[in-house]
Specification:
The protein is mostly helical. The protein is about 80% helix and about 0% strand.
Length: about 170
């Protein structure tokens, strides 16, 4: 294939811009094609290859760049969603912790009430034991008094019996 009519046209905008690695690799591939065809001599104009490359790039590059931007935006949005989801999970964990705290406070209140009841019962039992001790002491004192009175009564009776026992009279 010979393309010679395009040599007369002015410099392309591609030659003014720095060439990317893709363009350079395409040029090397075309040079390899030229050197690997020994049977047929195909002369390809360098300017034509540059213009075709430029046309190909200008046709596909905007779509690829917009796709790249869209993918970057989607990735950024995905990261934002992941952060938001992580925050929501943290909130749920805090809510569960609050529920656990509420149940702990309820349980603590129940145990506090039990302790208050036990304390009241202990005070009541203490009062009863104090009263019983006083009553026991009074009964013990009363029994001792009765025992003492009985002993005194017996001694009086013994003394009276001694006095009643006949004494022999003394002879003078």
């Amino acid at each position: 294939m010979e393309v010679e009519g395009m040599e007369d046209e002015g410099p392309s905008s591609q030659s003014e811009l720095p060439q990317s690695e893709d363009v350079q690799s395409e040029r090397q591939a075309s040079l390899l094609l030229e050197s690997s065809a020994p049977v047929e001599n195909v002369f390809v104009d360098k300017k034509a290859v540059d213009k075709l490359t430029e046309g190909l790039l200008s046709h596909y590059l905007p779509d690829l760049q917009s796709s790249k931007r869209a993918l970057q935006e989607l990735t950024q949005n995905q990261l934002i969603l992941l952060d938001t989801l992580d925050q929501e999970v943290t909130k749920f964990r805090e809510c569960n912790a609050l529920l656990d705290l509420n149940s702990l406070f309820t349980e603590a209140k129940v145990y506090h009430n039990k302790l208050v009841n036990i304390r009241k019962e202990m005070i009541m039992l203490h009062e009863k034991t104090t009263k019983l001790k006083k009553r026991s002491l009074k009964l013990q004192q009363q029994k001792q008094k009765e025992a003492l009175e009985k002993e005194q009564q017996r001694e009086k009776e013994l003394e009276r019996e001694r006095q009643l026992i006949a004494k022999p009279a003394k002879r003078t």
